[in-house]
């Protein structure tokens, strides 16, 4: 269905199938019914919706429409996007109350778990005494981010691939990197993570300062940019789920002196969490970090002040330079 039907205005599932344009959801449900597979629509509350001002306005919070397929366990999914994996539910509608649009059915709650909307980064950098390095990195994109990346890379030609990865993918993680090789995996398989395997040379992974080589912050997120105002009068809306998991090693030249240990930390604010579990193993700096920021609302006042402190503390841990002796 995702491959055969293009986006359009037609809502009649049968006409969408014959015309190959229109609502993929409608066509998908039509096919299931034709195969005698029970399928229903579910109206779901949006977790980003503002608190209702009264009982009548609560209905405005229910903005999600999901398809539910009855199997041994109900399967919730959307069929809107061409690159959506099977069983994908947007983060806004996970673990939320809802109603099956059928007579005599009880209220339901959608599954809380689902494909995380984020990226997992792993790899290795072999750093020389002058701070330059050869890097091998693998990025796995999941959920909504994988959907977006497939849409973007679907438009990138092979001749433009290296330049695109340098200027759009690595510029925020490894500035100045020169790409030597790129492998794209699962580009047309939405049920698997979208994977980029990159080999690159970095001219300045570490900068020389006196008798030290300072390893620059890798994969900075600048979380404090989320809370730039000194105070707020209205809630701060975090409309997207941000999830980053890092497992990256920096192997330093034997001539460099390693620190005895690296700072670690755990920072939380409600459901928001940043974990830093970096370690030193011989001549290897092991960077192990998790940033998990679910979509939601930060309320004005004390909640916003605590959120500000959370972002500053997390940034300090994530963006700290690591000093190696010469």
Indicate the topology:
Elements lengths: L5 E2 L5 H7 L1 E2 L1 H11 L4 E7 L16 E8 L5 E3 L19 E4 L6 E3 L8 E10 L5 E9 L1 H11 L7 H9 L8 E8 L8 E9 L3 E4 L2 E4 L20 E3 L3 E11 L12 E5 L2 E5 L2 E3 L2 E10 L2 E3 L3 H17 L3 E4 L1
Protein model, in words:
With 326 residues, this protein is of the alpha+beta class. It has two domains: 104 residues, no CATH class; 208 residues, Jelly Rolls (Sandwich). 17% of the residues lie in helices and 36% in strands. The protein contains five helices and 21 strands. The strands form five sheets. Strands 8, 9, 10, 11, 15, 16, 17, 18 and 19 form a nine-stranded mixed beta sheet that branches. A five-stranded antiparallel beta sheet has the order 5-4-3-6-7. It is globular. The relative contact order is 0.12. The model has no long low-confidence stretch (mean pLDDT 91).
Defining key terms:
single chain; 326 residues; nine-stranded mixed β-sheet; five-stranded antiparallel β-sheet; 5 helices; 17% helix
Shape: globular
Computed structural class: alpha+beta
Major sheet summary line: 9 strands, mixed
Structural Rg: 24 Å
Give the number of helices.
5
CATH topology of the largest domain: Jelly Rolls
């Amino acid at each position: 269905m995702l491959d055969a039907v293009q986006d359009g205005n037609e809502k009649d599932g049968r006409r969408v199938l014959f015309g190959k344009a229109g609502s993929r959801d409608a066509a998908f449900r039509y096919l299931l019914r034709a195969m005698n597979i029970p399928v229903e629509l579910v109206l779901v509350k949006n977790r980003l919706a503002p608190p209702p001002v009264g009982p009548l306005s609560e209905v405005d919070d229910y903005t999600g429409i999901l398809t539910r397929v009855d199997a041994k366990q109900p399967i919730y999914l959307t069929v809107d996007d061409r690159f959506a994996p099977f069983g994908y539910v947007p983060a806004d509608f996970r673990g939320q109350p809802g109603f099956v649009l059928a007579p005599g059915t009880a209220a339901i709650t959608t599954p809380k778990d689902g494909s995380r909307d984020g990226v997992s980064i792993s790899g290795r950098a072999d750093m020389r005494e002058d701070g330059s390095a050869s890097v091998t990195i693998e990025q796995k994109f999941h959920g909504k981010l994988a959907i977006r990346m497939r849409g973007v890379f679907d438009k990138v030609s092979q001749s433009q691939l290296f330049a695109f990865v340098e200027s759009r993918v690595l510029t925020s993680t490894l500035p100045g990197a020169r790409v030597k090789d790129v492998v794209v995996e699962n580009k047309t398989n939405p049920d698997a993570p979208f994977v980029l395997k990159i080999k690159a040379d970095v001219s300045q992974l570490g900068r020389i300062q006196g008798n030290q080589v300072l390893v620059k912050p890798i994969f900075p997120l600048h979380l404090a940019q989320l809370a730039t105002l000194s105070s707020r009068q209205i809630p701060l809306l975090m409309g997207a789920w941000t999830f980053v998991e890092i497992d990256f090693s920096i192997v330093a030249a034997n001539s460099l002196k390693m620190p005895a240990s690296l700072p670690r930390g755990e920072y939380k604010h409600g459901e928001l969490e940043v974990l830093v579990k970096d370690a030193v193993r011989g001549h290897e700096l092991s960077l192990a970090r998790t940033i998990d920021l679910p979509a939601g609302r930060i309320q004005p006042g004390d909640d916003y002040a605590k959120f500000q402190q959370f972002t500053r503390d997390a940034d300090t841990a994530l963006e700290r330079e690591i000093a190696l002796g010469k």
